[in-house]
Amino acid sequence: MSAQGCQFTEDQVLAYVAGDGSEEETLEMALHLADCPACLDQAVEFRTLEACLDGTGSAAALRWSSFDSPFGTMYVAATTEGLAWVSWRQPDADACVEKLESRFPGRCVIRDPDAVAEWTRQLEEYFAGDRTSFDLDVDLATLSDFERSVLQTAREIPYGEVVPYAELARRISKPGASRAVGNALGHNPVAIVIPCHRVVRSDGSLGGYTGGLEYKRKLLAIEGRLDLLLAG
After folding, report:
1. DSSP for the chain?
2. pTM of this prediction?
3. Catalytic entry in 52, 96, 108, 196
4. Of 19, 112, 207, 216, which is most buried, counting CB atoms within 10 Å of its CB?
5. Domain extent at residue 109
6. CATH at residue 186
7. Is 39 designated active site?
């Protein structure tokens, strides 16, 4: 069934989207969709998937889902290349989809929990204290070469350790580019998996964090860096 108490099935909704029903069935479903938000959402998802397959193919799709985290509802999205987006800053699913459509123009955005289940599982394990590294491919294709260099290097910082912005700049052979490094970290689309929260100022203070400084403190607390929690 498409929804509890609804007499229409997923197959009937799919048939409507595909245009396989009779004229009478098509009219009946069209009238039903006007009164059933669950079936309407399902029809929109089927239509979106159809558009992906008819256009540039399923590889163009951006698949997303959400899960409950200590930070609230966390949204994750992935392409066929890897994890492309992690965020807890969207108030609801509609805002998530809107953000993804804006950030990844031209891609179909499809809610698909199965497609991102592995990413979700590893993040949940991290929050539970059962994981110290991520075995995940990431897709940084929307970033510049410099930003990718910064983030790929930041990903190598071990769990529980921190490095100064200046040190990260040195590691990418750009000494003196601390400010540019900070800006690149601010564009990190896969927070936590690429641990920009492990980069701090040279004086030991925390510096900034696009997700919110309170969350940088929480992530460092998860990793046992209680000595940094009072840093500004």
Report:
1. --STT-S--HHHHHHHHHT-S-HHHHHHHHHHHTT-HHHHHHHHHHHHHHHHHHTT-GGG-EEEEEEEETTEEEEEEEETTEEEEEES--SSHHHHHHHHHHHSTT--EEE-GGGGHHHHHHHHHHHTT--SS----B--TTS-HHHHHHHHHHTTSPTT--EEHHHHHHHTT-TT-HHHHHHHHHT-SBBTTB-GGGEE-TTS-----TT-HHHHHHHHHHTT-GGGTT--
2. 0.76
3. 196
4. 216
5. 59-127
6. 1.10.10.10
7. no
